[in-house]
Design brief:
Shape: elongated
Structural class: mainly alpha
Strand content: under 5%
Distance between the termini: 44 Å
Helix content: 55-70%
Order of helices and strands: HHHHHHHHHHHHHH
Number of strands: 0
Largest sheet: none
Radius of gyration: 27 Å
């Protein structure tokens, strides 16, 4: 089975921020250059020519390196660079000094190319608020593909999909929803390796969910990680607040009902199949009460009872 650790080249952070001048305040010559050249855009000067005349390489070289890594189309780069330069001049700080709120504000303003500006924020800062942008599946998936690489992610998706399908999860969850949530986990953890994910990280992402449906795939993925020994135990899916049926265990021996509940809460199969098994085991318990009242625990079950149950 292919996994991230078996890929030919190990993954390292694609942009070495140590090689740049990360002074947060704009230098005087940079302020002067921006104030003199950015207004030329209003007279029809092309963004490329404005940047060439401004010659603020310290401010733009890191951005260009990120754009190269994520393969942003060259003819669309100037507009995004101009946007970043305008924000720097307005704030009086280079992008190294931007707060998380300022980064998110700039991303919201970047239009159709917001994913590439998101990549700049992610790779050049400690940004951890991407979930605040909304439509998190698309934000995290687009960013993960561009930062970590499609080949690496597809290997991980295939590995996770096979495990989920073997446990009875449906193809739609295993092949579509689970990869989307996995992208969020990997981006939040700033690493494309499953082995680097932690229990604490998964619980942090789970707390950002506001509905029970939001933890559905997350709980399934945590079972995969627990099955591989990466985390100690899977997380529980957020309860949907449905009122329990007070008569569900009526007529079922107490010890039998306790065992059925334990199997349901700790089984590795998907919730749909575990729920079906739970109801079936309770039905068997009611049958035992009616036909074999002396049998009250699973350890008393034998093949003779199994035969009589199916005759």
């Amino acid at each position: 089975m292919l996994n991230a650790s078996s890929l030919p080249t190990p993954w390292t952070w694609p942009v070495n921020v140590e090689r740049y001048d990360r002074t947060t305040e704009l230098k005087q010559h940079e302020v002067t250059a921006l104030e003199r050249n950015l207004p030329l855009l209003e007279s029809g000067v092309l963004p490329f020519n404005v940047m060439r005349q401004a010659r603020v390489h310290r401010l733009l070289d890191p951005v260009e390196d990120v754009f190269n890594h994520v393969r942003f189309q060259r003819n669309r780069r100037p507009a995004m660079k101009i946007l970043l330069l305008k924000e720097m001049l307005k704030r009086g700080r280079s992008l190294w000094g931007w707060t998380e709120d300022e980064w998110l504000e700039t991303i919201e303003r970047s239009g159709r190319d917001r994913h590439f500006v998101t990549a700049v924020a992610y790779l050049l800062s400690e940004l951890d608020g991407l979930h605040r942008l909304g439509r998190r599946n698309f934000v995290f998936c687009c960013l993960a593909y561009r930062v970590f690489g499609r080949e690496r992610l597809r290997a991980l998706f295939s590995e996770v999909r096979e495990m989920l399908l073997s446990w009875g999860y449906r193809e739609r969850l295993a092949g579509i929803y689970a990869p989307r949530v996995l992208c969020e986990l990997l981006i939040t953890n700033r690493s494309p390796r499953l082995e680097d994910l932690t229990q604490e990280l998964i619980e942090t992402v789970a707390r950002r969910r506001v509905t029970p449906m939001g933890t559905w795939c997350l709980a399934a993925l945590s079972k995969v990680l627990a099955g591989k020994g990466i985390i100690s135990a899977p997380i529980m899916r957020m309860k949907n607040g449905a009122r329990p049926n007070p008569h569900l265990q009526d007529g079922v021996p107490e010890k039998w009902a306790q065992s059925a509940k334990y199997w349901y809460e700790n089984g590795t199969r998907c919730s749909r199949l575990r729920r079906a098994d739970y109801y079936f085991v309770l039905a068997v318990g009611r049958w035992l009460t009616a036909k074999h009242p002396t049998i009250t625990a699973p350890e008393q079950w034998d093949r003779n009872l199994e035969w009589s149950a199916w005759r």
